[in-house]
Amino acid sequence: MIDGATTTGGFSLVEHPMGPRALAAPLHRHTREDEYSYVLEGRVGALLGDEVVEGGPGDLIFKPRNQWHTFWNAGDEPARLLEIIAPAGFEQFFDELVDLGGVTAASPEVLGELCARYELEMQPDSVPGLAERFGLQFPGEPL
Hints:
Layout: E1 12-18, E2 27-30, E3 34-41, E4 44-48, E5 51-55, E6 60-63, E7 69-73, E8 79-86, H1 91-99, H2 108-117, E9 120-123, H3 127-134
Antiparallel strand pairs: 1-8, 2-9, 3-6, 3-8, 4-5, 4-7
C-alpha cells in the first residue's frame, strides 16, 4: 500500500488478507525491522517467542525485530490486517517471494538466498507443527 520510496525509508504499509485458518508464514525473525499488525477484520493469532496472542478488529499486535514469530487467521471467516514495517525495505521481500511461487515452491537454496538478502531467518520446517498445534493450513497445503 505504501512502500519505502514514498516514506524515504521510514516505514512501509502492507495489507495481508488471509483465508480461514490460514498460516501466513513459517516461524521467522527479522534482524532489521519491527512489525506492527493492525487487525481490520477477523481474528488473528500470533506466536511471539513462546507467547500466543489473539486479536480482533482494532487490536494491534507488535512483532519486534529479533523475536521468533509467526501469525495466522485464527477463525473460520476471512481475516485482514494492515502491517506497518519499520524501517521500510522488507515489503520488497513479498514481491520477490511471489515471483518465486511462494515459500513452498521455492527451492531451499533460493529461499535461503532471499532470506539472507533481507536478513531474515526462517524455519520452513516449523509449518507442520504450527498447522497441527493451531488447526491451520499453509497456503497450497491441504488441511
